[in-house]
């Protein structure tokens, strides 16, 4: 079986189109989408239209949940921008997405960890506000209740694969549409930077009962998306979209 895993599109319709074209050229049996589909100062409605028109197995991320659950006053900038662009059809689609999903009894999908869409699984935040790989004991503890050979997660926007001691594989495909962000949330405000503006996703292939992963970094017209963010007054978004760094 050959699988594409995409995540954290964040309203970036041009990055999504580039990734879907790359997937179509390579050929897969199934595409799964791990959530945070729309939140950003970009093009939530155009992105939702593409997602609704394409056949994939999707779950929701923390931002998808916040778009529906929070009041306008409680929402952050990205969630509010997306919320205000979406139609009733888009919101109904979001509302139907589950937090986790099991595919063919052996592939587990979640956004953050199996238990929480707003916790990093493979990374931890350091006191200086950067992010590093999580300790293996903690990664394995968070996998304890999920007995699948392939575990897919997202949320940190950081492409990474971790092979657990028992042979299971945890994969984060990175972010399709948001290659850097500042998270001001206490207790430790932090920054994520992919180092490249390209759209990230993962290809997974089952070989002899084990899963092999390759990460794809797809160039697209990122300057056009950076220009939209800049025009709407969001300098950090514009910087991340144009360079992969928050400068
Ligand atoms: Fe995200």
Structural write-up:
Helix content is 31%, strand content 24%. It is of the alpha/beta class and 247 residues long. The chain has one domain (2-243): Metallo-dependent phosphatases (Purple Acid Phosphatase, chain A, domain 2, 4-Layer Sandwich). The protein is globular and about 50 Å long. Fe (ii) ion (FE2) binds next to loops.
Q: Record the strand order, biggest sheet.
A: 3-2-1-13-14
> What's the total helix number?
8
Oligomer: single chain
Q: Count every beta strand, where a strand is a DSSP E run of 2 or more residues.
A: 14
- Total number of distinct structural domains: 1
- Rg over alpha carbons: 17 Å
Say which CATH homologous superfamily is assigned. Metallo-dependent phosphatases
H and E order: EHEHEHHHEEEEHEEEEEEEHH
CATH class categorisation: Alpha Beta
Ligand inventory reads:
fe (ii) ion
Q: Which secondary-structure class do the elements indicate?
A: alpha/beta
Sheet having the most strands: 5 strands, mixed
């Amino acid at each position: 079986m050959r699988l594409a895993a995409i995540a954290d599109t964040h309203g970036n319709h041009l990055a999504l189109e580039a990734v879907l074209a790359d997937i179509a050229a390579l050929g897969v049996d199934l595409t799964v989408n791990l959530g945070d589909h729309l939140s950003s100062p970009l093009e939530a409605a155009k992105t939702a239209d593409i997602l609704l028109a394409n056949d994939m197995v999707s779950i929701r991320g923390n931002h998808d949940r916040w778009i529906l659950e929070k009041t306008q006053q409680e929402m952050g900038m990205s969630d509010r921008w997306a919320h205000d662009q979406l139609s009733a059809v888009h919101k109904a689609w979001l509302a139907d997405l589950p937090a986790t999903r099991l595919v063919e009894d052996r592939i587990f999908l979640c956004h953050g960890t199996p238990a929480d869409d707003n916790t990093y699984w493979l990374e931890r935040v350091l006191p200086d506000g950067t992010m590093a790989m999580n300790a293996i004991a903690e990664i394995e503890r968070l996998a304890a209740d999920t007995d699948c050979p392939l575990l897919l997660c997202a949320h940190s926007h950081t492409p990474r694969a971790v092979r657990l001691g028992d042979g299971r594989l945890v994969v984060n495909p990175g972010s399709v549409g948001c290659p850097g962000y500042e998270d001001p949330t206490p207790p430790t405000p932090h920054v994520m930077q992919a180092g490249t503006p390209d759209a990230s996703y993962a290809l997974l292939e089952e070989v002899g009962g084990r899963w092999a992963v390759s990460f794809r970094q797809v160039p697209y017209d990122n300057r056009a998306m950076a220009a939209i963010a800049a025009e709407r007054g969001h300098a950090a978004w514009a910087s991340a979209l144009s360079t992969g760094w928050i400068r």
